[in-house]
Design goal:
Length: 412
Amino acid sequence: MKSLRTTALVAPLLYILALGGMAVRAGGQPPAGPRMALASSAAPRSAQLTPVSAPSCPLSLAQQVKSVRAFAEMMPVFRHPRCTNCHGGVNPFVEPEIGGHRAGAMEPPPPINTEQCQDCHDQLPGWDIPGTPLFFTGKSDEEICMQVKAFAETGHGFIEHIRHDHGGIQFIAAGFKGDRALDKQSLADHDVVIAKPPGDQPGLTKLAEKWVKAMGGEFAGSLECGCVKPKIELSMASAWKGTDGAQIVTAEVKATVELTADSSGLVYTGKAPLQHGRYTAPNAGCAQVMSPSGGVLDVKEARFDIADDQRMTISLAVEPTNSGGTMTYKCPRMGPVTIPIMPWAGEWKFVHQPDLIGRDYHFDEFDAASGTAFGGERTLVGHKEVSRTVERDGLTLTSSTTFEFWSQLKAK
């Protein structure tokens, strides 16, 4: 029965879709949250963060990714004990003991008598600790980044703070010395070993300049802008057609994947179920019931790279999983015939064999998007249409698939 052979062989072929990678001239918008500001930047000990405006971020998706990456390069210093211990990492308000300050992270401290600090930290007059709004402990990299933007208020101000503490007390320089502003006798008495952060102050200043440059030379938008990894969504829609002489079968499937960034902000991954649409097949006078099911669109890696001219390339690798389901025919003068879909689910892989590298399918050269917004909630930043046609055993198989990358405009 030729119509049944054709349908069984051809109709299921689209149930598996492997997605591709792309090169994008990015022009998206980032997620953003409430703008925060210091009540008094001149008095950081008592400063508080309060919302002052609606979310905003004028940076392109490329700038967002590049900015998050640039800030991450400073985190090995910010996470070093010479920084974190002062920024809430240890509690100096305990009974003095040999070694001191080893009582764990601070809660909001009582009023500080800075003269008492000088009893030990006498190599840097004015030794002090910042106020609780500037603590690093218990905060993610993104939260520390937003905290920095709120405190410094401008990109230039942040760079000058890193370069020489605005000419004030040289806490950063003391941190890079690694001696806690203790004299040699105190180091010996308290069994303290000099431990320096990685790099040096000029090097950290260059990284600060790199971060600000990535944002266009100055802080932009809300605190999240340039700090929070942009939320990116991949959508796919595919239409498939198979022909065997006069016999034609069609199918439609789509998927929407919310991608999650790794700690670098450059690599995104995610999974989502395939959503099956309309299917048709020759019926040969038989009633048909098509029941496609299952299948997952597995984005193994969407890697973002940013050039100096702000062009963004994205290399995407996927590994499709099989769909299931059945096709049932009820024909005159014979009982129902049910055909499993699974045995033929690998045909999509056959069509896309040239795209296979290792176990994953790779694609590139996505078109630059026009920046079209959708409902004010997200922006289109990449678009690609892929068509594949192959002949096999007298069958002509064609798949037309559209991929789109969207950037979330608002933080969830």
